[in-house]
């Protein structure tokens, strides 16, 4: 994700336990084309860590450099989209735990509630949580991640995300301060 320190990723809070987790961008067929990246710090909202509040199921992590390079210089970085609404189609690429290959879906989104968004995409089973919801062209803007209600959904065909509004912006700003 685009950040001043070029070292942040965003995902669902329920996906991150500790800095022992790793980030493997572009993983497919047992191959990690960009390497295995370790996390330096995990930043989770207090509302999630204390109460598992589904409206705060979003987290940022500061990624440790690998071979002297920061994650954003290797993979690029998506902009953070705040208050983007539901007009633009969203593309999600996820990594089901039962497959060695990612799946991708593009579809319209709608408001599930004032704090949650939903999208119909078939086959987004366990393992796809935390996948970014992207709008726009290259490099794109992240307006959500699979998470939130039912930790992203209770069926593989409907997924959810916390609305990225002012509270996510504030949380991003806190994550940036940790990374610098």
UniProtKB/TrEMBL annotation:
Extent of the signal sequence: none
InterPro entries given in the database record: Glutamyl_endopeptidase, Peptidase_S1_PA, Peptidase_S1_PA_chymotrypsin, TRYPSIN_HIS
Protein keywords: Signal
Domain of life: Bacteria
Keyword tRNA-binding: no
Keyword Lyase set for record: no
Pfam family, one: Trypsin_2
Protein name from the UniProt record: Trypsin-like peptidase domain-containing protein
Origin organism lineage: Bacteria, Bacillati, Actinomycetota, Actinomycetes, Kitasatosporales
